[in-house]
Amino acid sequence: MSDCLFCKIIAGEIPSAKAYENDQVYAFRDIAPMAPTHVLVVPKKHVPSLAGADGLTDAELAACLRACAAVAAQEGLEGGFRVVSNCGDDACQSVKHLHFHVLGGRKMTEGMA
Ligand code: AMP
Questions:
Q1: Any residues with Cβ below 6 Å from ligand 1, and which?
Q2: Residues linked to residue 101 through DSSP beta bridges, in sequence order
Q3: What pLDDT is attached to residue 2?
Q4: Which residue from 2, 27, 39, 53 has the highest number of Cβ atoms inside 10 Å of its Cβ?
Q5: Nearest to residue 99, comparing CAs of 113, 84, 109?
Q6: From CA 25, how far away is CA 73, in angstroms rounded?
Q7: 12-47 pLDDT, tens digit each
Q8: Predicted TM-score (pTM) above 0.85
Q9: What is 5-46+58-104's CATH topology?
Q10: Ligand 1 test: best mutation among 94, 101, 103, most atoms within 8 Å of CB?
Q11: Residue 75 in contact with residue 59, Cβ under 8 Å?
Q12: In a mutational test of the pocket of ligand 1, which residue from 10, 50, 95, 102 has the highest number of ligand atoms less than 8 Å from its CB?
């Protein structure tokens, strides 16, 4: 999508701090980190959110979760990590390209909401 921020990042039109990449997924450091490790895992194919995941193959969707685990391992998050995907306005999704936040490097708060 030509007007999508994350599509532009994937295309290299907007700079990012790459953390991981494979054929299906690109991952980069969040510009406003909320934990010592805060990486965004993004499918290279544009879908707006998890609610639009029918636009991905099962393999592409699975690749996102496998990439989250790969990022966590690469970042040394042996103590644990949290994966969050905000979907829609009630969840305060601000970028309308499916992404998974991988957060770690400190003890997470118990509440998720
Ligand atoms: P969400 O609110 O779940 O849609 O998450 C979007 C995330 O994208 C936020 O955590 C932002 O800090 C992050 N973000 C926005 N612009 C950039 C950028 N240019 N590079 C890296 N992260 C970004």
A1: 5, 14, 16, 28, 30-32, 40, 86, 92-95
A2: 40, 84
A3: 80
A4: 39
A5: 84
A6: 16
A7: 999 999 999 999 999 999 999 999 999 999 999 999
A8: yes
A9: HIT family, subunit A (3.30.428)
A10: 94
A11: no
A12: 95
Residue 74 CA to ligand 1 centre (angstroms): 21
Domain boundaries, the chain: 5-46+58-104
For the residues of 39-88, what is the DSSP string, one character each? Answer: EEEEESS--SSGGGGGGS-HHHHHHHHHHHHHHHHHTT-TT-EEEE---S
Q: Which residues contact residue 93 at a Cβ distance below 8 angstroms, ignoring those fewer than 6 apart?
A: 49, 86, 87
In tens, the pLDDT along 46-93 reads 999 999 999 999 999 999 999 999 999 999 999 999 999 999 999 999
Atom of ligand 1 nearest to the CA of 30: 22
Residue 32, token pair as written in the block: 């406003």
